[in-house]
Design brief:
With 306 residues, the chain is mainly α. It has helices at residues 7-18, 25-53, 78-83, 96-131, 133-146, 151-164, 171-193, 197-205, 210-248, 254-263, 269-305, and strands spanning 57-60, 63-66. It has a domain at 117-305: MetI-like (MetI-like fold).
């Protein structure tokens, strides 16, 4: 009996080699996101229909559930929210979409500035803690404790401090950086310290300096962890920028638009909801940019190490 492998096995393997399986994870993600949007939209409109059909007073047993929170003055229809984008933001003014686009660009610029500041600070702290166990034990608890203070309490103080320092334009980026540096510090520290012990011993056996170990071993190992933190921080920086614009009195960003449209919410609720949608889109786009960068950088790092 021959031990040779049949020719059809070789043919099948060659076909698989020439036609690698297609990665459908991205398509599945888009489908799931679309389904979630549909479910939320159906639930939104279903609640409004249920409340309207029962005059916003739904009897359940012996009690009556107040459904006035879904009437048109508090919870507008989804079509009204998206329709408001093409309507003037003010009388005889430009369309709301144009106003929100300009505000989104301004807020995104401040968020990116804070994102960079927080990422650099978090990375430096992680490197410092990696090479000094004493500093890690002494300072890391304070880094963790800093995140227990509500950002709404810190934002006004940061605005006042930056004005006293004659740097009012840095107030919003600093607030965004406050929400950014913590995830980067924690995740980068985990990645920098979780290198394989055998690889670390090998580098030291070749008399590698701490800088060489950091650049050639620790940093490549930490890249997936760092990008996980950056994706979290991307959306957090947008939130920080919007919150920072509220007490600073800046009217050219999404925070100013939220304050402005909130004053006239009863007259036109869709405009405030449209602003919230614009802020969400900005955060999603920033997240997508970081996620695409992760695919490029991490793949390049792996190919370079191979």
């Amino acid at each position: 009996m021959s031990d040779s492998v049949p020719q059809d096995v070789y043919a099948a393997s060659s076909v698989r080699a020439e036609n690698p399986p297609v990665d459908t994870s991205g398509i599945r993600t888009i489908v799931v996101m679309a389904l979630m949007v549909i479910v939320v939209a159906l639930a939104w409109e279903g609640l409004k229909a249920l409340g309207s059909a029962n005059n916003y007073a739904l009897p359940i047993g012996g009690a009556t559930l107040d459904f006035t929170f879904v009437n048109d003055t508090q919870l507008p229809h989804i079509a009204a929210i998206f329709g408001s984008f093409v309507e003037p933001a003010q009388r005889n003014g430009p369309p709301l979409a144009q106003v929100l686009f300009s505000a989104s660009v301004v807020t995104l610029g401040r968020a990116v500035s804070g994102f960079v500041m927080g990422a650099v600070l978090g990375g430096l702290l992680a490197i410092l803690f990696t090479h000094s166990a004493l500093l890690q034990r002494g300072l890391l608890p304070y880094v963790v404790a800093s995140q227990t203070v509500p950002i709404l309490a810190i934002a006004p103080m940061v605005v006042v401090w930056m004005r006293q320092a004659q740097l009012p334009h840095l107030a919003v980026p600093v607030i965004a950086a406050y929400l950014t540096f913590f995830p980067v510090t924690i995740y980068a520290l985990r990645g920098l310290t979780s290198v394989p012990p055998t690889s670390l011993e090998l580098m030291r056996s070749y008399a590698a300096t701490p800088l060489q170990i950091l650049w050639k071993l620790r940093l490549p190992n930490a890249l997936p962890h760092i990008f996980t933190a950056l994706k979290i921080s991307a959306t957090a920086s947008v939130v920080g920028a919007v919150i920072g614009e509220l007490p600073s009195g800046l009217q050219d960003g999404l925070g100013g638009a939220i304050l402005n449209f909130n004053q006239y919410y009863v007259q036109s609720p869709p405009r405030l909801w449209a602003t919230i949608v614009a802020a969400a889109v900005v955060g999603i786009l920033f997240f997508v940019v970081v996620a695409v960068s992760e695919r490029i950088v991490v793949r390049w790092s792996r190919n370079d190490s191979d």
